[in-house]
Amino acid sequence: MNAKEEIERLRAEIEKYSRAYYEENTSLISDFEFDALMRRLEELERQHPELVTPDSPTQKVGGRASAAFAPVRHEVPLESLNDVFSYDEALAFLQKTRDAAGAAGYAVEPKVDGLSVALYYENGVLAHGATRGDGVTGEDVTQNLMTIATLPKRLSGAPARLAVRGEVFMPRSVFEQLNAEREAAGQPLLANPRNAAAGSMRQLDPRVTAERKLDMVVFNIQSVSGIAFETHIESLDFLRSLGFKVIDSRLVTAPEACLDEIRRLGEERERFEFDIDGAVVKVNSLAARAELGSTSKAPRWAVAFKYPPEEKPTRVVDIVVSVGRTGVLTPKAVVEPVRLAGTTVTNASLHNEDYIREKDIRVGDTVILRKAGEIIPEVVAVDFSKRPTDAEPYRFSETCPECGGPVSRDEGGAAIRCRGAECPAQLLRNIIHFASSAGMDIEGLGEAVVQQLLDAKMIASAADLYYLDETKLRELPRFGDVSAAKLIANIEKSKENDLWRLISALGIQQVGQTAAKALARHFGSMDALEKASEEELLAVEDIGAVTARSIRQWFENPQSQHILRRLREAGVNMESRARLTDRRFAGLTFVLTGTLKNYTREQATEAIQQRGGKVSSSVSKKTSYVVAGEEAGSKLTKAQSLGVPVLTEEEFERMLSGQPQ
Q1: pLDDT score of 191
Q2: pLDDT confidence of 65, banded at 50, 70, 90?
Q3: pLDDT for residue 540 is more than 70
C-alpha cells in the first residue's frame, strides 16, 4: 500500500470513528487506538505535504452539529488540542514555548473527558449555550444546560457580555448507578461517562437530561466585555468569583515541575468526580498566547498529554451468568481483586459466548484486564503460559440460571436467551407486553402498575392478572375503590379478546401481531395451534422456518404449558372469531390506496385476510390487485405502469361477496 492509499484509508477510518464519537455518542475503538491512527496520519502527511487536504481530520475539529438542534455559530472558535503521548514530547513543547511563556509560566489542568460547550451570558443572564460541533458551529442545547444544578443561570456583578467554555460531564457515581440500573433491566451497558454525558445533553426532552444529573466545570473565557486579564489563572479566579465551578489549574514555571504535575494528575486521577483522559498544559500569559497564535485546528500555546490505558494481570476465579429483563444471558468473570485505573476490580465483562470462545477464557486462567473506555473492566487477553493443567474450556449454560428453563441462541445473533414464559428475570417486561396494545390491550395496566403488583407479590406471571383480588388491590398506594374496580373490569373485559391478541400477548419469539392474526385465522383455536407440527405451521401465510421452530419450542416449554392452563382456567377466550374457512383470496396480494367510502383501511385489510388474501403496503409485479379509493396517489400510478389490475370500491365489494365483476 503506497502513502496515498494509506492516507485515504486512515482518513476514512478516522472520519467513521469521529462521527460515532462526536455525533452518535458511541466509542467504536478506545481513545488510545484512535490516537494511534491520528498520529500515523499526521506522520504520513508530514512526509508527504503535497497530499494534505483542507478536509483531512488533521486540519479540522472532530464533530458536526446535529440537524436535530438549532445551529449556533460560535463568537470565538472552540479549538481542539494537539496531543502528546510521552514526557519527551511534552518537554519539546515546553522548550519551544518557554521564551513566550516567560515568568508567567504554564497552567496545568486535568483534561475532563466530557462534552465541550460554550456558554453565552448577556447582562449576567445565560442567553444560550451550544456544543462545540465542528468548532465553528455547534448545537443549541440551552434548555438541556438549564437542567445542570451547578451551572449559574444568573451572575452577580458580571460584565455586559461574557462567553465561557467548559465541559459537561456525568459524575462517576451517577454513571455507575445508571449502568447498574441498565444491567438489572437487561439493557446494554453504557461504555463510559463521556458517551453517557454527550447522549444525555443531546436528548430532545430536557426532562430526560435532568434525570441524568449532569455536572459541568468551566476552564476558559472565550470573550468578555469591559475587563482585561493578563493571565489564564487570573481569568479563572474571576470566573470562580462569579459562581462558576472552575477547573483546578496549577501554575508551574520550570519544565521539570510541569512534568511532575502531569505525573501527579495521572497518579491521582481517581480523586476527581469526573473521568480524565489526560492533562492539559497551557501557556499562562494571555499576551504570549496571542503571539503564538493557532493552526487551522488547534492553538500553539497548549497541548494535551494523553495517558496510556492501564492494564493489569489477575486470575479468573469463576465465570457466572446473569439474566437481563429481555432474557439475554450475560457472562462475567469473577476475578481476584486487582487495583485498576484507581478502583478495585472484582468482575470483568465477557460480553457473550463468542467472546469467551474466541479468547479461550477458562476458570483458573491468568488474564489481562483493561477498563474499556476507562470504566468497564474487560478481559483483553489470556496469559496462556500461566494456564493451569486442569483448566477446562468453558461451556455456556444450557438452561436459564434464574428459572431452569431452556435457552437458545438468537437466529443470526450472538445473544443466548431464556425462553421461559414465567422466568422471574423477565417478568416485568413479559407482563407489560402481555397487557400492551400489541397484546391483550388492558387499559390502566402500564409499567408503574405492573411493578407495583410485582413488588406487592400479587402476581408472579401474566396469568395471575386474572386472579387479582380487588379488595387487596384497594390497599395498594394510589389505588382506591374506583381505580381498583376499573382495573379489574378492564382485565375481565380482556378475557373476551379474539385469539390473535392472546397469541401476540404471549411473547413468542418472532410472533408479532401480523403473525398472530394469521395463526388465529388458520388454526381457529389455541388447542389446534398448540398441536400443530412445524410442517403445519409452515403452511400458514408468512410463517417461515425460524418462526415455526420458535412456536414449537414455546409450546413444548413446561412454563408455557403452565401459563396456558391457568389462562384457560381463568376463562380467557381461546377461540378465533375469524376462523379462515373462506379461502377464495388464497395466493392473492392486495394493495390499498386512497380513501374508501364504506371501509376503513383496517376493515378492508381484515376482509381480505379473512378470505385468505394478503395485504401489502407497496405495489410490485407480484401484486394481484390494487384497490383504489378516492384521491389514490402514486400507488395507483405505479399499478397502471406495471399493468396490475385496479379495482374500484364497487368492484372490490363484488369480489368480497363472490359476485362476478
Answers
A1: 65
A2: very low
A3: yes
d(CA 414, CA 626): 41
Q: Which three cell numbers stand for residue 124?
A: 449576567
Second-level CATH architecture of 310-418: Beta Barrel (2.40)
Alpha helices in 268-386 (DSSP H): 286-292, 353-359
**Residue 398 pLDDT > 70, yes or no?**
yes
pLDDT at residue 145 above 90? yes
16, 111, 495, 622: the active-site residue:
111
Distance CA 620, CA 202 (A): 40
In this model, does residue 215 exceed pLDDT 90?
A: yes
Which is it for strands 329-340 and 311-323: parallel, antiparallel or unpaired? Answer: antiparallel
Residue type at 107?
A
Q: How far apart are the C-alpha atoms of 375 and 369, rounded to whole Å? A: 12
Is the predicted pLDDT of residue 66 greater than 50, yes or no? Answer: no
Give burial (CB, 10 Å; 0-12/13-18/19+) of 60.
Answer: middle
For the segment(s) 71-306, the CATH number from 3.40.50.150, 3.80.30.20, 3.30.470.30, 3.50.50.60 is 3.30.470.30
User: Residue range 239-255: average pLDDT?
Assistant: 95
Residue ranges in 146-205 assigned as alpha helix (H):
172-184, 193-201
pLDDT at 456 over 70: yes
> What per-residue confidence (pLDDT) applies to 112?
93
User: For the segment 321-369, what is each residue's pLDDT rounded down to a tens digit?
Assistant: 988 877 899 999 999 998 876 567 899 989 889 999 999 999 999 999 9
Homologous superfamily, domain 3-59? Helix hairpin bin (1.10.287.610)
Whether the CB-CB separation of 467 and 492 falls below 8 Å is answered with no
d(CA 497, CA 493): 8
Asked if 438 contacts 349 with a C-beta cutoff of 8 angstroms, the reply is no
How open is the CA angle 297-138-18, to the nearest 5 degrees? Answer: 60
In angstroms, rounded to a whole number, what is the distance separating the alpha carbons of residues 314 and 366? 6
Answer whether 193's CB lies under 8 Å from 375's CB: yes
User: What is the C-alpha to C-alpha distance for residues 519 and 536, in angstroms, rounded to an integer?
Assistant: 11
598 C-beta neighbours (distance < 10 Å), count? 11
Look up the CATH superfamily of 589-657: BRCT domain (3.40.50.10190)
177: CB partners within 8 A, 6+ apart: none
Neighbours of 569 (CB within 10 A): 11
| Cβ-count burial 123-157 (b if 16+ within 10 Å, e if not) | ebebebbbbbbbbebbbbbbbbbebbeebbeebee
Residue 274 is which amino acid?
A: F
Spatial distance between the Cα atoms of 178 and 425, rounded to a whole number of angstroms: 19
* 596 φ/ψ sector (left φ>0, alpha ψ -120 to 50, else beta): beta
Chain-centroid distance of CA 425 in Å reads: 21
Does residue 4 or residue 386 have the better pLDDT? Answer: 386
Cell of 607: 376482509
Query: Which listed CATH number (1.10.150.20, 3.40.50.11810, 3.40.50.850, 1.10.1660.10) goes with 419-581?
Result: 1.10.150.20
Domains of the chain, by residue range, sit at: 3-59, 71-306, 310-418, 419-581, 589-657
Q: Are 335 and 347 in contact (CB under 8 A)?
A: yes
Active site residue 111: yes
Pairing mode, if any, of strands 416-418 and 376-382?
unpaired
632 CB contacts (<8 Å, ≥6 apart)?
593, 594
Report whether 463 contacts 570 (CB < 8 A). Answer: yes
| Mean pLDDT on 475-499 | 93
Predicted confidence band at 60 (pLDDT cuts at 50, 70, 90)? low
- Cell numbers at 117, concatenated: 460547550
